[in-house]
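User: Can you help me understand a structure? I only have the sequence.
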Amino acid sequence: MQKAFEDRVIAVIGLGYVGLPLAVEFGKSRPVIGFDIQSSRISDLTNGHDVTLEASRDELSSAEHIRFTDDASELNAASIFIVTVPTPIDSHKRPDLTPLIKASETVGAALKPGDVVVYESTVYPGATEEVCVPILERISGLRFNQDFFAGYSPERINPGDKKHRLPDIKKVTSGSTPEMAKAIDALYGEIIKAGTHLAPSIRVAEAAKVIENTQRDLNIALINELALIFNRMQIDTQAVLEAAGTKWNFLPFRPGLVGGHCIGVDPYYLTHKAEEIGYHPEIILAGRRLNDGMGAYVAGQLVKAMMKQKVQVNGARVLVLGLAFKENCPDLRNTRVIDVIRELEDFGAVVDVCDPWVDAAEAKHEYGVTMVTSPETGTYDGIVLAVAHDDFRELGATGVRAYGRAPHLFYDLKHVFSRDEADLRL
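Assistant: Let's start by predicting it. Here is the structure, written out as tokens:
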């Protein structure tokens, strides 16, 4: 089968959890320029080391056609640009398109007639053509859909998931013209074993991405609210879900903290656009408010339980096990464990945080958290198992509780152990 776009050089802009796996897959058979603005990231990858743990040393070496660089001038050699930079929210929970805008400016400076720019970053419907394309036109001096073309193919990377890898996840594709859409779809078809779905427009593909995670967010919000209700009724939520789960079409969602780079962020992109066009979304924002409040709720439960045991909360020692936003993964982006920590600190507790997966320097830089590598046994008045890392599972409930003094309270936030092995569960 003839390759789409023949053997054009592909440049992947942004080498994080999304961009690196993409560059590696294409780099097995095509010339690829892996570009990132962080020189330390380029140095690590050049030496075969990926701090995100998404690509092993063997996988990096198998992509023999990649060259990594932080020199934007090298992008001039490419004619297909795939943008995979983060799209976070700001402190007011509004979309922060700064990385996307800067990446578009960088690509625009390298853009030539006939080139193609594909965006994978999560955005609200319309952002590619309303925000990014005008920047490409302004910087390059070229005309959209005459001199250059665009596409959108939303990322579906699940950090830390070794089963659902990039080639095994069906890919949505789209293009700015019918012909370009087919070519972009064929391009991704070269590396995606699970197949592709060609959306009828860029806006449809953008919308599909934001509702994937908005749907999950709302389902988790429902279960979280049920947990709040059942806790007041002194009913074990997990037991209820296990019973309800015996019905064939009951959805297996569980209560918990909702963070990360997708579920806790994407709904705000959709609600931002909805409000921009004059519609105030009720259900989506209600789900977001509820999920954003779960960290404070968890901390409050622990504090109340400590007070009932006549433990002085102000000055109490609390150990939080886990800081990453999910298990067996070093990803700290938008982790909501920090909400539990901050709330406990507001009550006057002295909080230690231990996470063997997380880089201590990154935790300090992003959240001001000083990590503890080896918590002392018999030290803590409260223990919160916040992330279900295998490291903590292997300790067993007895091993975890060994960190506590007598008496202490153990909050198993992730339901890692049985209900009789913990004092508190969500």
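Now, to help you interpret it: The first strand starts at residue 10 and ends at 13. Residues 202-232 form the longest helix (31 residues). Let me know which part you'd like to focus on.
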